[in-house]
Amino acid sequence: MKVLVVGNGGREHALAWKLLNSPQVEQVFCAPGNAGTAAMAGCQNLPLAVDDFAGIRDFALANGIELVVVGPELPLSLGIVDYLRANQIMVFGPNQAGAQLEASKSWAKALMVEAGIPTAASATFTREEAAQAKAYVQQQGAPVVVKADGLAAGKGVCVARTVAEAEEAIESSFSGQFGAAGNIVVIEEFLTGQEASILALTDGEVIAPLLPAQDHKAIGEGDTGPNTGGMGAYAPTPVITPELMTQVQTEILEPTLATLRRRGIDYTGVIYAGLMISPTGEIKVLEFNCRFGDPETQAILPLLETPLDELMVACCSKSLAQLLPIRFLPEAAACVVMAAGGYPGDYEKGKIITGLEAANATGAQVFHAGTQLQGENIVTSGGRVLGVTATGATFAEALRRAYAAVDCIHFDGAYYRRDIGYRVTT
Ligand code: AMP
Ligand code: GLY
After folding, report:
1. If you average pLDDT over every residue of the chain, what do you get?
2. Which of 4, 11, 71 has the alpha carbon at shortest distance from 369?
3. Dihedral angle, C-alpha 124, 128, 129, 130, nearest 10 °
4. Which atom of ligand 2 is nearest to the CA of 291?
5. pLDDT digits (tens, 9 = 90+) for 372-425
6. Which CA distances in Å does 336 have to 69, 270, 317?
């Protein structure tokens, strides 16, 4: 089978790597991919942007691509799945209507309320209702969470410590900081506890979670400083006990799928539920994403035993039930993200990366994110540069192996958290 993966991040490198592990997958193409996907045997990058739908279609049709896997939310929300399916191409991911689960927080909230899914209390305001939005935060008090409705590259959520900060977030969203994505804001109750990410596969009829993972959103050790796309992850997180997983299945995943169906949406692909688990074990949904998580995917996929291509084809052909239960190795995995100094603020690009071979020789898997080839060199080209992943019998072992590989790698200004997995090792 020939597969085309759309995207260029660490998630897409991990997807391409896992797909190539399957005996049935003969070749993987990445549009546009990164230096890591370019270097993998059996994998080839294509100079096609993630929103070049016609280019992706033409390549797929001309080269006998049997499956397209869409990584990022942007092309999903722009309707790449509808477009490719109209051209008889099999594609893993939700259609544009389904992608609203991530592309509109107010739409997702309304769906959760309709489905009776536990989530933070909230209110939604349009730009014309700025005065009401401010009155609402004054009445709620701080801390309070202000979210731009649409896609804002992970920057649309403000956890406001004061009412003034919340008012400022409302103003900057309505004054165009996130473009049209900020014309509506969702203001939400502040929740505390531990976060967990549930990535579930669905064919529109059944829905099955992968191993629960935990991301580390904040840039600083001890979960301090501004939020990022994710600085590291591990799986399976013990905060989701088997009992809680059953609850997630029956109270969140199944009602979400049923409500999508009731709205006439045939959702296939991944439903990612970002959860908050309170100190007393109460679960609430913080957000839905319509795709695999990054870097959660880099921690989950090394443990997946059922061939990924078979799962994806089953999702596209309404036969996922036949592959259940999904099988996993009974081990632990951890991914440490190496970022460019300054991220998530301004950072420099073009720094030469050395030590990648030595890191891979340790047995760890170095997934590339913001990297590109420049002549003979691999250089940095993004904020999150690499996701260094290792497995082990315990979290301590997986983390020790991941950090041993991180120690081999150098680039100017490299930054990473040294405390990934602190909750499971201390
Ligand atoms: P979201 O994109 O909605 O998941 O928000 C990004 C991050 O903001 C989450 O992973 C949380 O760390 C934080 N966050 C979002 N909503 C809330 C909330 N209601 N209470 C506390 N933190 C939140
Ligand atoms: N790691 C968070 C996300 O993928 O949205």
Report:
1. 97
2. 11
3. 100
4. 4
5. 999 999 999 999 999 999 999 999 999 999 999 999 999 999 999 999 999 999
6. 24, 23, 35
- Tell me the per-residue pLDDT of 256-275, one tens digit each, with 9 for 90 and over: 999 999 999 999 999 999 99
- State the Cα–Cα distance between residues 148 and 276, nearest whole angstrom: 19
| N residues, the chain | 426
Residue 222: both structure tokens together? 């001890």
| Widest distance between CA atoms in the chain | 59
Residue 173 CB less than 6 A away from ligand 2 = no
What structural domains does the chain harbor?
Answer: 2-85 (3.40.50.20), 122-189 (3.30.1490.20), 194-323 (3.30.470.20), 332-425 (3.90.600.10)
Query: Can you list the positions of beta strands (E) in 82-148?
Result: 91-92, 122-126, 144-148
Q: How far apart are CA 251 and CA 248, in angstroms?
A: 5
d(CA 285, CA 348): 35
Rounded to whole angstroms, the Cα distance separating 177 from 150 reads 12
Long-range contacts of 403-406 (CB under 8 A, 24+ apart): 403/336, 404/362, 404/364, 405/359, 405/360, 405/362, 405/364, 405/366, 406/336, 406/338, 406/359
- Please indicate whether residue 159, judged by its CB atom, sits closer than 6 Å to ligand 1: yes
> Is residue 64 exposed (0-12), middle (13-18) or buried (19+ Cβ within 10 Å)?
exposed
Q: Amino acid letter at 46?
A: L
Mutate to test the pocket of ligand 1, among 145, 237, 272, 288 (most ligand atoms within 8 A of CB): 145
Closest residue by Cα to residue 150 from 114, 195, 183? 183
Report whether residue 145 contacts ligand 1, using a CB cutoff of 6 Å: yes
State if residue 294 touches ligand 2 by the CB under 6 angstroms criterion.
yes
